[in-house]
Amino acid sequence: MQLQFSSLVIASVFFATQTAATPGHANKYQWIAPTATDLRGPCPGLNTLANHGYLPRDGRNVTVPGIMDAALGRFNLYFYSPAFNVNWDAILIAAKFGLLTGDDLLSGTQMTLAALSSHNIVEHDASISRNDFGDGSGDNVHFNETTFSTLANSNPGKDTYDTTSAGLVQKQRLADSVANNPLLVNTRKEFILRSRESGLYLSIFGDPATGIAPKKFVNIFFREERLPVAEGWTKSKSLITGDSLGIIEETIHNVSDWTATTSCEPLVLGPNGPIL
Ligand code: HEM
Ligand SMILES: *[C@@H]1O[C@H](CO)[C@@H](O)[C@H](O)[C@H]1NC(C)=O
Ligand SMILES: *[C@@H]1O[C@H](CO)[C@@H](O)[C@H](O)[C@H]1NC(C)=O
Ligand SMILES: *[C@@H]1O[C@H](CO)[C@@H](O)[C@H](O)[C@H]1NC(C)=O
């Protein structure tokens, strides 16, 4: 009897805490535009996580485990706060490469979102929403609507993007870089990264099994770096993993009809070199 009573008390306290935490939870993870001193970078995914407070809002002191936690959604006694439902195995290598974008002692454990723009570490040419580093525009970091128009105009007549349209967008964006960027780097590494990025936006904002995603949600993600919750998006019910992405990326790979135009990847080991 004694035991039952205490369990009941504990259960009520827990329930009360959870209920009380709900508005606070929503508030903690609401979208807030970055301020002038907050750092953002070339990754719309990490920028979005920072805009919602899943990663530090100032874009600094971003750790590998911090990214893994944020991409998945955190769990503690008070709240479950899902972000992308992306499993660590889908993004761990990119995150570890991210540490190379710093060259001070702190970069052993953390990075800033802005530093991720170091060219050819993770940042690459033929992006879908940013310009190339070497194409004369001078901006490989910020969202550019002209560049994004290839994706925005893809899959005409439908209100969804899919693996076929994503593959065609990658093909078109690469053709543009081949034509306009004399410094283009396009090896297998960039191809794998670009396809993973396409797989991610389709899986997070659509169905990870089919890779079909409402245009409305994807466009808000790229243009505003915001989770389109108010527009009706909910996070994927199934975990997005390296395996699930691998399956839909096969179509993206095939449709993008990719060939290397650079034979050897420059090995960039830090923001100021060395470049081997
Ligand atoms: C679930 C987490 C992530 C999502 C949803 C995501 C999503 C994306 C997408 C869609 C792009 C393509 C942007 C474009 O081509 O214009 C991109 C680019 C990029 N991502 Fe992420 N990403 C994630 C994790 C990471 C991680 C862990 C890192 C490294 C620390 C990273 C670093 C980058 C960089 C540097 C770019 C720029 C590549 C370029 O376009 O030049 N991302 N990401
Ligand atoms: C956070 O990052 C900033 C900028 O990179 C750095 O100066 C500061 O020392 C870091 N703080 C901690 C606690 O690691
Ligand atoms: C966006 O990209 C286009 C095409 O590369 C370029 O002409 C334009 O200057 C860019 N806009 C900004 C604001 O950087
Ligand atoms: C992709 O192409 C390979 C090689 O031609 C083929 O074996 C595979 O079935 C294709 N996969 C899809 C999903 O189209």
TrEMBL record:
Q: From which residue to which does the signal peptide run? A: 1-21
Keyword annotations of the record: Heme, Iron, Metal-binding, Oxidoreductase, Peroxidase, Signal
Instruction: Report domain Heme haloperoxidase family profile positions.
Output: 27-247
What molecular functions are annotated in GO for this chain?
A: metal ion binding; peroxidase activity
Q: What domain of life does the native source organism fall in?
A: Eukaryota
Recorded hits in InterPro entries, A to Z, give:
Chloroperoxidase, Chloroperoxidase-like_sf
Asked whether the UniProt record includes Metal-binding among its keywords, one would answer yes
Q: Which cofactor does it need?
A: heme b
**Family designation:** Belongs to the chloroperoxidase family.
This one is known as Peroxidase, family 2-domain-containing protein
